[in-house]
Specification:
Protein name (chains A, B): Cytochrome c
Helix content of chain A: 55-70%
Oligomer: homodimer
Mean pLDDT of chain A: 88
Number of domains of chain A: 1
Largest interface: A-B, 56 and 57 residues
Organism (chains A, B): Halomonas cibimaris
Pfam families (chains A, B): Cytochrom_C_2
Number of helices of chain A: 7
Signal peptide (chains A, B): 1-25
CATH topology of chain A: Four Helix Bundle (Hemerythrin (Met), subunit A)
CATH class of chain A: Mainly Alpha
Keywords (chains A, B): Electron transport, Heme, Iron, Metal-binding, Signal, Transport
CATH architecture of chain A: Up-down Bundle
Chain lengths: 156, 156
């Protein structure tokens, strides 16, 4: 067995075999599901700190900082799921809001990714200072980077 | 409008309003979807480096290190999705493999989470040294922590 020869235990292999898509040879549906999952996880962490920023939930500085760090750690991840053949009307049959014009504007799309990553990193850093007003202001900047990209590249 | 008073821009609010579940008041289906998404994202990054470890894909030290770091960053995230009322047969009607015995063994479940987080952090660190054999060995240890938990708490 090749698996045994490589030094991976049978136990570990059993786990690996249960894992899903590989990025190296991802099917369109896997890439779409991946990026949607990544955005979902980002939303899970962003939403409660946005609620704090809006005043709907009491500001919890530690919780804000923890979730802001998670958002920053996640910010680089969704983008590798945006690959050719995975956009709207690409014939994959999967429900996605990602417009095909993404493929026509790679530089702009990449810049918008970078803006989001940069502002999210700043948010994580600022949140560690545990000041509500500066944290709220920076969260708003992150939100704007989301909107900037959605306005151009996400279906209504 | 309360939203305007808090200093969040209308643009940012528009984004926030499109976000989904809040962790603070998550419905069972949101928590289940969240943790499944988090595991899916972990699998997306773990699977290709496992393929390298198995010899199915050529070892790319930079790529291995990048994905190992992502796995380490993600390792702390799924667990907050495991809350009361979200396990199998809890009446939520969502398809989940998470066994209800998780709720009966919180200390053991938490220890298994910690084991996974610890080994994933070690993997990210070791992967930076860009040595195939040590990286492969540590990846196997991470895989074992997955299996240890799945054996006890995940349905077949």
């Amino acid at each position: 067995m090749r698996i045994m020869k490589t030094g991976l235990s049978a136990a570990a292999c059993a786990v690996l075999l249960t894992l899903g898509a590989t990025a190296s040879a991802a099917e369109p549906e896997d890439a779409i599901h991946y990026r949607q999952s990544a955005f979902g996880v980002i939303g899970w962490h962003f939403s409660p700190i946005a609620d704090m920023a809006k005043g709907d939930v009491e500001y919890d500085a530690d919780e804000f900082a923890r979730r802001a760090q998670n958002v920053a750690d996640l910010a680089s991840m969704p983008w590798e799921g945006f690959v050719d053949g995975t956009y709207q009307n690409d014939g994959h049959g999967i429900n996605t809001d990602a417009l095909a014009k993404i493929a026509d504007n790679p530089d702009d799309f990449q810049q918008k990714q970078q803006d989001m990553m940069d502002e999210a990193q700043k948010l994580a850093k600022i949140a560690q200072e545990k000041d509500f007003r500066t944290s709220r202001a920076q969260l708003s900047k992150v939100g704007k980077t989301c909107k900037n990209c959605h306005d151009d590249y996400r279906a209504e």
